C-alpha cells in the first residue's frame, strides 16, 4: 500500500509575512509616486526644456565642404557648391490652421511639389514628424524667392526650413574625367584623384545642439565643420583640352568605319615632364561627363560585355542598348567606361619596347652599339621561324638602323647576346611587372604578366625583345621611357604637386622623386640618338609624328593581339620633344582601330603630330626647323580653326610631311622614303604590281598585300606558326582585380 500524499498547511505565520510584504510594496510605490510629483512640481519646466532641446537640436549636423581640385595654373577642375534640401516640419505647420494653405501654395508655386501628397502626409504626422524631405539639392537661386516670402512681415508660411549640404561640381564636365574621378552620394571619392586622395579632400562634419546652462536656460551650441584640403595637380587644363580634342577628332573620323562602334576600342594619351615625372595631361577615349556619370549615351560604341565583364565581340548600338536595362549589366559597362585606360588596362607594347632592349644590351656590356646584323625577314628560334615585320628582309643593319627600321631580327639577336638572366634583370630595372605608384586609384598589377628567368624560354625571350608576349600599362612604359632619354633617372610619376588647406596655406609640397638610375648618361645619349632617327632617318618609322617646325624623337609600336593572326593590333607612338633637349614625353596608344587593316602606325603618329603642333608653342618651346610652304599653310589654317571652330567640327589635318600621303605607307610601323635602293638587300617587294583599289602591292607568289615602301605584309603575324600549340603567348593572363588585363586577349 503506497504512502499517502502530505500537504503543507498555510499557517498563520506565513499569512502575516505575506501581509507585511504587501504593505512594504505599497509603501514603496507611494514613495515613488510622491517623488515623481515633487519633481514635476519643482523641476518640471527644467526637464521639459531639456527634452525639447534634445528633440530639436541634438541630431543637427553641419556638413563640411570637400576640398577643391585645381590644375597647375589654378583653374578649378572639381569643387563643391552649397545646396539646400527642403524640409517639412509637420508639427510646426499644424500649430495653426491658417498656416497650411499659404505654405502649400508657396511650395507648389516655387518648387512644383505635389501639394495633395504633402497635405495627406501632414494630416497623418502632424503630432510627430519634424523632419520630412520634400526636395533635394536646390541652389540658393532656386530657394531665394521662397525665403523672401517666408521672411516677409506677417507671413503665414510656416513649418518649412532648409537643410544645407554640398554638391560636387565639375566645371569642365568631361575634362580629365579619368584623372579626376567623381564622388558618390555620400561624398566619398570613386576612381582617380577623388578616391586616391579621399582622406585629404574630406573634412569633418560640424554639429549644432541644445543644452541647459547652470540657470536651466536652453542654449544652443555650434561646433563648426572643418572643410577638406585642396589639391593642386600637375595637370595643365589647356594641354589636357588639346589632347582630348585630338582623341575626339580621331573617334569622329573612324567611328562606324569598318564595324559599328567607336573609332577604336580605346585610345589613350599621356604627356609627362621628362625630368620630374609630372603628368601634364592624361586622357582616354571614350570619356564621360563627371556631372552625369550614369548617362548611357556615352556607352554607345563601346564593346558589348557579358555578365562577367568579358568582351563578346559585338558593340553597343541602338539595337542592343536594352541590355543595359539590367542593373548588373549596366554597372559592368559603366565600370569599363569609368576605368582609366592609361593606368588600369594592360596590353602588349610592341616595338616601343625596342629602345629598352637596346639600352639593356648596351648598359650590360653585352653589345657596344657598333654591331651589325643581317635581317633576312625571319629568325629561327626554338625550332620556329619568327618573322620581322618585313618578311622579305632588310639586309645588313646596324643597331641604330634596327631601331630606325624597327627590325625584329636585330632585337632578337641582341637578346641572344644578352641572355635570359640579363634581359629579365633589366625588365625589373625598367619597372616592368611592378607598379609605378602613381597617385591615382586603380593602377593595374602586372607581376603575373611578365616572364621570370625560370619561366622564360628561348621563344619567349625572342618575342619579348620586340615587345610581344608580355604585358604593360601605359604609365609603366612612358615612365620607363623617360629614364631612357633623360640620363637614366627614373622619376616616380605623380599627379599632385601641392596640398593646400582651406585657408590657402600649403600643407604639403610634393617634390619630384628619383627612385633609381636605370642606365648611364652615356647609354641614354645613345638611345636618344637612335630614337631621333626614327623620325629623321631615311627609313624612320615615325616620320608622320613630327609637328611642323619641330624635330622630335621617339619610337612606333605595333603589337599583334591574341589570338595571333586575328587581324587585331594595338598601335602606338612614344616620343619626346624637342629632340636635342627633351622636355616632355608623349605616348599615344590606339587599341584596335576601327579599320580593316589595323597594323598601321599612322593611327597613333598623326594624333601625336596634331597634339604637339598645338602643345609645343603653348609651352613656349620655339621652332627649330624651317617650314615648308605646305606646313606654313597648315599652321595658318590651324590658327583660323582654333579661333573660329569648336573641336568637334574641325576637319582632319592634311599634314605637311609628304610621307603621309597615299595608302598604307606606315603599315606595320614603317613609313619609308624614297632612296631605299641604297640598302644592301634587294627590295623585291618594289617590283610587285600595285592594287589600284587599295594602293598596296600584291605578292604574286602568295597573294598577300604588301606595303610598297617598307615591304611589310598587311595583317601579317610575326609568328609563322601562330596556330601551333607551342607558339609564344603572354604569361598567365589571369585578370588582376585592379586592372583589365584583357585588352590584348579576347
Q: Mind explaining what this structure looks like?
A:
With 746 residues, the protein is an alpha+beta fold. 32% of the residues lie in helices and 19% in strands. The chain contains 20 helices and 27 strands. The strands form nine sheets. Strands 2, 3, 4, 5, 10, 20 and 21 form a seven-stranded mixed sheet that branches. Strands 12-11-25-24-23 form a five-stranded antiparallel sheet, with helices on both faces. Mean pLDDT is 85; it is low at 53-58, 647-680, 722-728 and 733-746.
What descriptors fit this protein?
746 residues; alpha+beta; 7-stranded mixed sheet; 5-stranded antiparallel sheet; 20 helices; 27 strands; 32% helix
Largest sheet entry: 7 strands, mixed
Distance between the termini: 94 Å
Please tally the β strands and state the result: 27
Query: Helices and strands: which structural class?
Result: alpha+beta
How is this fold's topology laid out?
Blueprint: H1 12-57, E1 60-62, E2 69-70, E3 76-88, H2 90-93, H3 100-111, H4 115-125, E4 132-138, H5 140-151, E5 160-169, H6 177-180, E6 182-183, E7 189-190, H7 192-196, H8 198-201, E8 206-212, E9 218-223, E10 230-233, H9 237-254, E11 264-273, E12 279-285, E13 303-305, E14 311-315, H10 327-338, H11 341-344, H12 354-363, E15 372-375, E16 378-381, E17 384-387, E18 395-398, H13 399-404, H14 408-418, H15 420-429, H16 458-465, H17 474-485, E19 489-491, E20 496-500, E21 506-509, E22 514-517, H18 521-536, E23 553-560, E24 569-577, E25 584-593, H19 602-618, H20 629-644, E26 697-698, E27 705-706
Parallel strand pairs: 2-10
Antiparallel strand pairs: 1-8, 2-3, 3-4, 3-5, 6-7, 8-9, 10-20, 11-12, 11-25, 13-14, 15-18, 16-17, 19-22, 20-21, 23-24, 24-25, 26-27
